[in-house]
UniProtKB/TrEMBL annotation:
Domain MPN: 107-227
Family recorded in the similarity comment: Belongs to the UPF0758 family.
GO molecular function: metal ion binding; metallopeptidase activity
Record protein name field: MPN domain-containing protein
Length: 227
């Protein structure tokens, strides 16, 4: 049986880790970066082959990022542990991207700034994700509350306002995405928002806005006078 090619068969200076140290991460191809994330291959298959299989199977980084643990694990050489590593790397990237436009809590009364803050986290998801931004007089946080289907988010007031109470929020902003690319609210969006506003009044937590994020546009309930 012929020996499988591995990273160690490459000259030291051509291995991904050594190239990154010498030339920086931007010098590496996507496949090489994936090799570093995965660490090692499996018996009979090098990590380079596994990384290439991932790219071939999903086609691009966006689809790879959207893939579930189960979908990633369908690739030979990718078990739950490596799939979790891949998901963690993409999630760190998403979270970092939301911190590149820092605002003070009081500035988030502007829907445009809410959109700029949250769009990197929401605009490329294949399913609907519902987020809450609890605000107090000093700061804010961002928390995911639910993940729905392509057409609907399943949102319960008790889960939403649990985040607000935990963060000692005096007010909140909601945000969710429309994978269709159309930011206009659905009938369900209108019903859910009304329900949450009413729940907020009971708890003395003001709902400042609900922003729907599409790829290159957004809809603000506040701007449209729907709160």
């Amino acid at each position: 049986m012929s020996k499988s090619f591995t990273i160690h068969d490459l000259p030291v200076e051509e291995r991904p880790r050594e190239r990154l140290v010498k030339f920086g991460e931007q010098a590496l191809s996507v496949q090489e970066l994936l090799q570093l994330i995965l660490g090692r291959g499996i018996a009979g298959e090098s990590v380079a082959v596994t990384a290439q299989k991932l790219l071939t199977q999903f086609g691009n980084l966006q689809k790879l990022s959207d893939a579930s643990i189960e979908e990633l694990s369908l690739t030979k050489g990718i078990g739950p542990a490596k799939a979790a590593q891949i998901k963690a790397v993409f999630e760190i990237g998403r979270r970092f991207s939301t911190q590149t436009v820092p605002y003070k809590s009081k500035e988030l009364t502007d829907p445009e700034k809410v959109y700029r803050l949250i769009k990197s986290r929401l605009k490329d998801y294949a399913r609907e994700h519902f987020y809450i931004i609890p605000l107090n007089s000093r700061n804010y946080s961002i928390a995911e509350v639910s993940v729905g289907s392509l057409n609907a988010s399943i949102v319960h007031p008790r889960e939403v306002f649990a985040e607000a109470v935990k963060n000692k929020a005096a007010s909140v902003i909601f945000a969710h995405n429309h994978p269709s690319g159309d930011p206009e609210p659905s009938e369900e969006d209108l019903v859910i928002t009304k329900r949450l506003v009413e729940a907020g009044k009971i708890m003395d937590i003001e709902v400042l806005d609900h922003v729907i994020v599409a790829k290159d546009a957004f809809f603000s309930f506040k701007n449209k006078g729907l709160l």
